[in-house]
């Protein structure tokens, strides 16, 4: 709720603060228990920072993060430590996030140890169980990350995230580094695990086609802001925000009978250190009006549960 993350920019010989990067700039949304909420946007739009701020791996500058009714931004380190059992993250690059010097048993066993499973044999048993849950085998436990393929390494990352039976998993581009053929296997696995363990995911991706299959709802971010959020079907069939429309027009259409008009956006994404006034998208928007460069559009429902931040829909609630 009202989540902001500003990073200071230091400059000059004295290293004084000369500005700030508004990586996440007043973002509000809810995640429903058991759902997969996709968050999509180009690199630098603030989607990873949003995910990490929710877990407080990055400290939010402002705003609330409510988990089961409690604002966790007020939690002290001990309360946060306990909460980390319930909230986990899976990273984009499974290789970088797995310690190359540790066996799989140690990697997956570590969160178990941290949360109080002192007995080594108990941990070993649980690690074997987790390996099987993600489609690997007990004998993989004694191996090292470099002995696995990219897809297998992401399975290890998923097993580690599942170790303490979390409720929410933030998936930060978990398949972006994988071959297309492996991507769908991992996505299918993640969907099965959600059903089996009643998980909730925030699934971050830069590609609308990746989240299309797996998400229940999808949010679109641009320059640190959420610009549209609704049910998957609605978003793909009736996108309201001009930026979403442009992103969708770039997704290849598998049906050759459907001819799509590609919307080409002018210019580059502006710097989040100096975002345009008003609607941050106005410098590239084909529908920009006078008001767009002056007043920031509110993120509000245009119809039931379809949120859009765009002046084209002002007064149509
Ligand atoms: Fe385009 Fe204006 Fe809507 Fe922004 S508010 S997306 S500039 S029409
Ligand atoms: Mg990222």
From TrEMBL:
Gene3D superfamilies: P-loop containing nucleotide triphosphate hydrolases
PROSITE patterns in alphabetical order: ABC_TRANSPORTER_1, ABC_TRANSPORTER_2
GO molecular function annotation: ATP binding
Keywords associated with the record: ATP-binding, Nucleotide-binding, Transport
Keyword Phosphoprotein: no
SMART domains: AAA
A Pfam match: oligo_HPY
ABC transporter domain: residues covered: 1-248
Signal peptide location: none
Family in the record: Belongs to the ABC transporter superfamily.
Record protein name field: ABC transporter ATP-binding protein
